[in-house]
Amino acid sequence: MPHRNADEVCRIGRRGVLAGAGAVALGLTLPGVRGAGAQTLSKSKVGVIGSGHMGGTVRELWVKSGHEVLFSSRHPDELKDMVARLGPLARAGTPEQAFAFGDAVLLAIPYKAYPQFGQEYATAQDAALLREVYPTLRTDRSREAVFSALAEMGGAENTRWLLALAQNGNETIQLRRRAVESASRAGASITDLIKVYDTTTDPSMKQNLIGIFVRNGERPAIDKLISIVKGEENLSVRRSAINQLSKSEDPRVKAALQDIVSR
């Protein structure tokens, strides 16, 4: 990992997040992070979320460079000894206090903690930054951490991002299928999900969406399923829709299936 000094790491806009994703790596190595509302902050205030090994790796670097650093924990009293050793520029507090304190905020938390963190603390600005840096991430682990965090956060902007990801042919089909499932759970409209179906050519993606339409059960979803049963060109996808609908008690579904049988 290339070395960056403390001032360089802190070049990010007010309330921006240096996304650690279980390591400082995201915040320290990605040009995309520095590009998000970047500005030069001379002697900045930095909030650190997570004061374990990775959060501690940068603490002395920042404090010695003259930055005020607030280290946070759910139990800030446990940080008193560390803060006393680092001197007057270091202090301890809660994660909420770290967000309010920092010109920049470093997330130095485990990958598995990202979803819960997103639900509890992340702001709309934090989510926007994660969406911005996602395309620049180089490792599957980093991308997975950001994907999971955004999927758990929900909200209209993240749902639109998930739908766009589901339609991005440069992503793996496995990720695109997960994106459409996550978008559905986050509240994507059936109209938007139908648009995804109509623009994809992958059979497994279509089968995923058929399952979503069946679980939804609303009229537009049922209408789309009937349309698939009658007109889908891929026979395996068509069979999947027929199998899914065979258990339905909806009169329109029964009529559509009877029409197929009688042809």
- Percent of residues in beta strands: 5-15%
Please count the helical segments: 16
* Helix-residue proportion: 55-70%
Overall spatial form: elongated
Q: Give the end-to-end Cα distance, rounded to a whole number of Å.
A: 65 Å
Structural class: alpha/beta
Describe the structure.
The chain is 59% helix and 8% strand. It has helices at residues 6-9, 25-29, 31-35, 53-64, 80-86, 95-101, 114-120, 124-133, 140-153, 156-166, 173-185, 190-199, 203-216, 219-231, 235-245, 251-262, and strands spanning 16-19, 45-49, 68-72, 90-93, 104-107. The protein has a domain at 1-129: Rossmann fold, CATH 3.40.50. Strands 1-5-2-3-4 form a five-stranded parallel sheet, sandwiched between helices. Helix 5 links the parallel strand 3 (68-72) and strand 4 (90-93). The protein contains 16 helices and five strands. The protein has 263 residues and is an alpha/beta fold.
Element layout with pairings:
Elements: H1 6-9, E1 16-19, H2 25-29, H3 31-35, E2 45-49, H4 53-64, E3 68-72, H5 80-86, E4 90-93, H6 95-101, E5 104-107, H7 114-120, H8 124-133, H9 140-153, H10 156-166, H11 173-185, H12 190-199, H13 203-216, H14 219-231, H15 235-245, H16 251-262
Helix pairs in contact: 7-9, 10-11, 11-13, 12-13, 13-14, 13-15, 14-15, 14-16
